[in-house]
Amino acid sequence: MTTTQGDMLRDVPPGRLKPLNQAETKSALADLKQIAGSEPAIAALLAEEGTLRDFIVAALTLSPHLREIANLEPSLLVAAIDKPLSPQIEALVENARQAWLPAEQGASSPSESEVMSRLRVAKRRASFLIALADLARIFDGRLTTKWLSRLAEASISAAIDHLLLSSHEAGKISVPDPAAPSRKSGLIVLGMGKLGAEELNYSSDIDLVVFFDETAGIVPDPDDAIDIFPRLMRRLVRILQERTADGYVFRTDLRLRPDPGSTPLAIPVDAAMIYYEGRGQNWERAAFIKARPVGGDIAAGQAFIRELVPFVFRKYLDYAAISDIHSIKRQIHAHKGHGAIAVKGHNVKLGRGGIREIEFFVQTQQLIAGGRMPALRCRSTEETLGQLTDAKWIDAETRDELAVAYWFLRDVEHRIQMVRDEQTHLLPETDVELRRIAYMMGFADVPAFSETLVATLKTVERRYARLFEQETKLSSETGNLVFTGQGDDPDTLETLRRLGFDRPSDIANVIRTWHYGRYRATQSVEARERLTELTPELLRVFGESKRADKALMRFDSFISGLPAGIQLFSLLGTNPALLSLIVNIMSSAPRLAEIIAAKPHVFDGMLDPSLMAELPTRDYLAERLRNFLAPARHYEETLDLLRIFASEQRFLIGIRLLTGAIGGTMAARAFTYLADLIVEAALDAVMKEIRAAHGEYPGGRIAVVGMGKLGSFELSAGSDIDIILLYDYDDTAGESSGPKPLDATRYFTRITQRLIAALSAPTAEGVLYEVDMRLRPSGNKGPVATRINSFEKYQREEAWTWEHMALSRARLIRGDDQLTLDAERIIGEILSSKRDVGKIAKDVHEMRMLIEQEKPPESIWDLKLIPGGLIDIEFIAQYLRLIAPARGVGIDANGLSTAEALKLLGGSLMDRNDLDLCLEALQLYTEVSQLIRLCIDGIFDPKNTPAGLIELVCRAGDCPDIRTLEAELKRLSKAVRKIFQATVGR
């Protein structure tokens, strides 16, 4: 495309534009004839039947927007064809700049609505003339963008002067010179992006960042500045972008300021500097390459930009940031030439081979080398290409190809926007509308335009890909993922939707939060670089999970609590299995997700590559606990370390269960082993403290009995623990031997109280276990610690049937060897006593019915309480243990799990088929309930449960879907209830 010499539309050569079609030509001519009725110049134009007439008619057929302006203001069309264009545009730019001044000397300042009207009229007229000059190629892209930028700058400056003067006249501020309100005001208005580079689009919005110097002195009370200036900026946006009868001036975006989600529209200079020095991101460095003062206190703006140079252009070759720059490149979705480029619907700004790739090609190298080469600190894209060539960073061929491509694509962009004055970069998707763009570009037809366009895009794509040809992982098939600034990129939202997110705008906002370094884990530049690099893969993997939005929100909650992030983000980037595991937790296990959000340290253990290969046996856990407690120097530190270790290991056992590395039965045993070890260590720590304060008690010995699920190796992730503390001592002793002696009752009571506190008292590191001691003799009415002879007497003479049922699960966990043997002997003798089978059956049956009455199940998923559920099976096992001696079965089933006890006793006391069915049901209940208790708090409800958890529950139950699993639970529970009635029923 060549440029017309001269500055008059009459100089346009023949055939510059073709009309869209015959119908549009007739319509445009009809409009011109109507205008000709009041404008002789137009009548003369129509009578000429010359080149200028053909050009004007064609332009009006191709751009409904230009035709609308011509009809609205015919005199503007007359001026366009009769007078040189540049002086007219210059005058209109000056009109915009003077819009804040009184209409005549001595008059009062114009109202805000008057200023708005003046600016809109100047913009409408100037943009009309610029568009015609561009279409006639009197102006090329360089000149078009320069004029548009000057118009925007004049409008912003006038609006700022008006705002400052009106505030001055209202007494809110005091400007040094009301005749030049902006001068020395300390109000800095920077134009970013294409406005800063003086390369504004035809229908572009303008990106502004506003700062103010609190020390400039124009606000009487500097504390008021943070309220006054943001309010002024809200008015600025209204002045520039609100649509009125006169149209609008420029759409205005203030979201490139620091952390726009949580900062006012105007920011103090000092606060901004602190932000950029500490938390500024590489994309913000790229944005500030083009920053330029466009309004307000220009001198202050220039000083601010000078101060920011060390942030934007680092002194040393900045290869440390290249990884983040690479990931920004990936976010804008570069391809390496595979596949055809579709012309229809192509985004000439963000699409393959588009304007953004050329800009990024330039800015990347500016960021890397600009600190050492001041010549590279240019704002203009074409000028920087020249400087890169001079600096030998690119060759002349690359410079020329990209410069030609840049201005060709900018011309296409302008014509797309000229059609209806819309801020779009998408080529039309219909043949008719695409023909409109081809003709506006001066091509004879769509195929010729398409061929040139595709060749241009491929040139850019090839040069751009070559810039990062060593970076093999950059090309992403994901789609646009742009999270810079505060606004939502429509293509990014579409990509997120396609990836599987239902609320793409919320997800984009979360990721911007990461970019702004609001979390400790993302405050370092290195951590943000790693996370930015990871983001596309992170989104892809999360998007594949069910309820992807909730899962990513849980991940966000997790990283918000991390003390640091670089190690984790680096590991996730190089370890796909770990990333999948994180997604699994966030999508399937809300309870685990909450745990790691509240206690991020539990995640550290997941970084151990041998985690899944090692089974959590008692020996495995004991060795790790011993090493973990080794550094402890005092009691409180021991308890804190115990809490950290317990929460971490509970989590890691849960991870193994979640991933299928272990099953529910193994998990139950592992949770129990962990509790055993924690109780042992806590008791040892307590005894050390007691001995230090109160000494030894002569002949004193203690033992801890695990009851309930602790005793039967059936703890789950959130279980409390049931214990009884037994003790004995020499009857001849009166008190302990320490500096603060205690009698026997108080001594052993103190041990028990300290042990309960050690296990259940909340500290900064949380709680170890909730402790339940109601299974001790006389329950809550009895003493917390029980002497062994009292325990024996109570169990032999006073205990109820249900207490002997509970005793069948008793297991000695820790204590004096002799006392442990004595307790085991007593328990064994009591359980081996012959009982009245009928009475036991009656008691067990009544107890089960009472529980059913007082605690009815909420649904089939209440596996403990449903008829035929876990309680039924446990009661069957306990019943068999109590009646076995009377039936002549002398089997010792103490210290076993329910399943082990059933197998041992049921072989002699149950029908084999009934036994097998109970074991089958117990296995299913254990697998499913362990997983559910791990992943959520409360009752499982498939309707309100993460889909990922439903899949895991089905896997645990070995069923293809949840309905099949429900049917299986109903079948088994119904059968177990029948067995319970037959076995225990009277």
Shape: elongated
- Rg measurement, Å: 40 Å
Number of helices: 40
Question: What can be said about the biggest beta sheet?
Answer: 5 strands, mixed
Number of strands: 10
End-to-end gap? 102 Å
Uncertain runs are 316-320, 331-339, 469-476
Structural class: mainly alpha
The overall average pLDDT, rounded, is 87
Task: Summarize the amount of helix as a percent range.
Answer: 55-70%
Strand content: under 5%
Key attributes of the depicted protein:
single chain; 986 residues; mainly alpha; five-stranded mixed β-sheet; 40 helices; 10 strands; elongated
Task: Describe the overall structure.
This protein has 986 residues and is mainly alpha-helical. The protein is 58% helix and 5% strand. The protein has 40 helices and 10 strands. Strands 1, 2, 3, 4 and 5 form a 5-stranded mixed sheet that branches. Helix 27 (618-629) runs parallel beside helix 29 (664-694) and helix 35 (837-854) runs antiparallel to helix 36 (870-883). The chain is elongated, with a radius of gyration of 40 Å. Mean pLDDT is 87; it is low at 316-320, 331-339 and 469-476.
